[in-house]
Amino acid sequence: MSLFFRFLVLSLLIPFSQCYGFDEYQHLNAKLRDRVRPGNPVVIVPGDGASRIEAKLTGKLTAPHRLCAKNTNDYFTLWLDIYLLGKFVVDCTVDSLKLVFDPKTGLSSDAPGVETRVPSSVESLEYLDIHKYAKSAYFAHIVEELEKWGYTKEKDIIAAPYDWRRAPHELIGFYDLLRTRIEKTYSVNDNKPVVIVGHSLGNPVMLYFYTNVVSADWKQKFIKSHVSLGAPWAGAAQIIRMYTTGYNLNQFQVVLAPGDLLPMERTLTSSAFLFPSRAVWGPTEPYASFDGKNYTVSNIGEFFEDIGYPIGMAQYNWTQYKGVSTLDPPGVEIHCVYGTGVKTPEKFEWSKNGYWSTFPKSSPTEVHGDGDGTVNLKSLQACKRWNAGNNGGKQVKTYEVSGADHIGILKEQVSMSVLKDVLYRI
């Protein structure tokens, strides 16, 4: 090093150290390092249709048409691969995703000749589609921000995907794994309690976990907080589409018609779980009507009979859980973030076309109210009934984000600010 260069370096360093002093200099360095030092570990619980499902075909007896395979040598991504949603091929996908429900036990099984599993990597939640189609970005933004804050996938960012086709009482295996995963995450991160980040269906799935699976002492030790994003705490009127015309989850509308998924959606116990809740919908408040007849939470059985799916009532009855259907407090700190001011279906109206009935397969007229475009405001706001007084001393805060839709809430600055505050708050 030349004498001139040494002089230049010393001339820059000496005034700095004299100005701040050694202790102050060390403190400043520590603050800079803290900007990329992770806080409490994060466990992500995704929403409806957001976990990947892998399948292996072991000899299906029937198939919709000749294009559909009946056997595969290994597991493949059944959901979600956009190329498996194309014309004709989608029939094969839907047929393999259907569940077979037993009303006596309340349990479902995969279609005969189909075995399924759910991969558990963080990467699997960043995009809905395995090809990472830009519009399928899901938790990608949140994971990217966490990494900027010093977090690492699979160490202090943990995924907790589950089979979203099934209602909570069918997820006992998932809850066992979740409990173990949370305890391990706590242990490998210096005994820091975790922060749960749930989106959509993932939140009532976790409410079941809090109220039916783990104890107050366990929650006190392992859960720091729960950040809910777009939670359908009390279901959603939109679910009516999953039993009538079909619903494409507002994804891939270009290639996927809503009716394409109907044969599968009706078989899912998670659909029944998300039916409008008696805890929030009034006994005379209609979510659907046909030719002057209103369907409310008081005559749900008639709704299922009239759409030609009577087994739906048994599915519904099996999902009326203690603690969830009554919206009991979770017993953990809650930060409830949701969008408002977006047109959201709150009632579907069918009418007769002359002598011909258009119910339930034709497109209904939608009556809109407030919400996030998918979940009604009354369901999003159900967390407001909880407070420190009835939630075991744990605080409950709500954050309304005007104009944020159901998926967009994952990218909102308010969501990121709330999450960062929770993660780094001592």
TrEMBL record:
KW Cell division (keyword) present: no
Molecular functions per Gene Ontology: O-acyltransferase activity
Keyword Transferase recorded: no
Range of residues in the leader sequence: 1-19
GO biological process annotation, one example: lipid metabolic process
TM segment ranges: none
PANTHER family: LECITHIN-CHOLESTEROL ACYLTRANSFERASE-RELATED
Name recorded for this polypeptide: Uncharacterized protein
Organism: Steinernema carpocapsae (Entomopathogenic nematode)
